[in-house]
Amino acid sequence: MSDPTARFAEIVGDHNLLTGDAIPDDYSHDEELTQPPQKPAYVAKPATAEEVSRLLVAASEGRIPVTARGSGSGLSGAAIPRQDGLVISFERMNAVLEVDTTNQVAVVQPGVTLTALDAATADTGLRYMVHPGELSSSVGGNVGTNAGGMRAVKYGIARHNVLGLQAVLPTGEIIRTGGRIAKISTGYDLTQLIVGSEGTLALATEVIVKLHPRLDHAATLLAAFADFDQVMEAVPKVLASGLGPYIVEYIDNMTMAALIHTQNLELGIPDAIRDSCQAYLVVALENRTAGRLGEDVERAGELLASLGAVDAYVLEGVSARKLIEAREKAFWTAKAIGADDIIDTVVPRSAMPKFLAGARGLASAAGGAAAGCGHAGDGNVHLAIICKDAAKRKQLMTDIFALAMELGGAISGEHGLGRAKTPYFLRLEDPAKVALLRRIKESFDPAGILNPDVLFAAGEA
Ligand SMILES: Cc1cc2nc3c(=O)[nH]c(=O)nc-3n(C[C@H](O)[C@H](O)[C@H](O)COP(=O)(O)OP(=O)(O)OC[C@H]3O[C@@H](n4cnc5c(N)ncnc54)[C@H](O)[C@@H]3O)c2cc1C
């Protein structure tokens, strides 16, 4: 391609193409902690699928690497571009196209943020339930990472809530997958192949998401446990109780202390209990009526006591919201206290005690520490890793991921691999599986332009 700047500008218009010093630093990173920012050569802000298609055709011809960007809140370095590359930012494609209450779906452009989608559905009594802690994140980013979040224990992850896509292939073809339909058994499921592919296969230009009823009454129980293993043993019993909690999170005592301190939380937990507890379980319940909710809260309190909770506090209104928000912001707390890396490993729920004990043991053997919280109902463990020595830390991370995989888990439960975790994935994953993924990638993206450093060819961890 003779002059990429002129070609991209001709597609999106001069005002919607940034180059050189005009590119703000924001486009060079996401929120991941370890990967160096890289300023791209071009940032294009298309307004339509056709413009995305023409950008990808031009980039394929010129072999220019392309990184899609939603809100840049990802935690794996998947939105960090190549220095010679093109960022396609979906910030102008931010319309909620339709809220279809009959089919209980919303049809949205990828740049719509979760806050905007929530506002657009508020009057319908329905809601998009994928709820990663960062509500400035975009639906396109949720598609890219297969986002999870706290409500996944009841409502599932992005994969369960994305019913269809309009997507642009790197060759420029525009396809539609799935639809406003509850089921489909017609060939390979391309929607699900694209969800979670971290911008390496195709770019979503329209997303059909499932909506669920909003339940008006909610309460949160915070249960303190003296023994860490008791918390993990309580989780399956809470899930099997039929109470249908929409949040089941654990928070270890170090992390709770940091959340209380950094976010000025007032939870009313007596010092004696705080000092003697190893961990907390947060269980949030919701219902159609206050009466039914009240019955469920009472039952949950009894259950938690029978499972060994030292005490359980029922939080409503502001204090419940503050606790949930503090938990959502746990990443910022980990960053503020100097975490060197984070993991979001997933293991079978039954393996959580073994995994957590193993990970903490490995961290202390490496002269570091591992503390955190996580989506206990999903077996999704978020650990802040503190280990200043880079070489030791890489080995520690490798050992922790290897342990998770031995226990039947996976490196990432929801953040994705990005640039940060790809090297561990390539080191630890079955080579036959990686080779198959590579062949799938080649069939979507023959020129290899889409996010080439993610999943396959990133640098050293
Ligand atoms: C405080 C905090 C808490 C968080 N908590 C959670 C949590 O609980 N659960 C969770 O899952 N995540 C969590 N995250 C991570 C993050 O919010 C999610 O990964 C979110 O899905 C990223 O959306 P984004 O719009 O910021 O995407 P970006 O970071 O911009 O991009 C993420 C990936 O999606 C790709 N992408 C973007 N747009 C498209 C598109 N249109 N088509 C195809 N690919 C695309 C990008 O190339 C990249 O690979 C948290 C982040 C923060 C900062």
Automatic annotation (TrEMBL):
InterPro entries, alphabetized: FAD-bd_oxidored_4_C (IPR004113), FAD-bd_PCMH (IPR016166), FAD-bd_PCMH-like_sf (IPR036318), FAD-bd_PCMH_sub2 (IPR016169), FAD-linked_Oxase-like_C (IPR016164), FAD-linked_OxidoTrans_Type4 (IPR051914), Oxid_FAD_bind_N (IPR006094), Vanillyl_alc_oxidase_C-sub2 (IPR016171)
GO MF term set: FAD binding; oxidoreductase activity
Gene3D superfamilies: 3.30.465.10, 3.30.70.2740, Vanillyl-alcohol Oxidase, Chain A, domain 4
SUPFAM superfamilies: FAD-binding/transporter-associated domain-like, FAD-linked oxidases, C-terminal domain
Top-rank taxon: Bacteria
Keywords tagged on the record: FAD, Flavoprotein, Oxidoreductase
Required co-factors: FAD
Pfam family, one: FAD_binding_4
Keyword Cell inner membrane: no
Domain FAD-binding PCMH-type: residue ranges: 35-214
Keyword Oxidoreductase attributed: yes
PANTHER family in alphabetical order: GLYCOLATE OXIDASE SUBUNIT GLCD
Protein name stated in the entry: FAD-binding oxidoreductase
Organism: Mycobacterium alsense
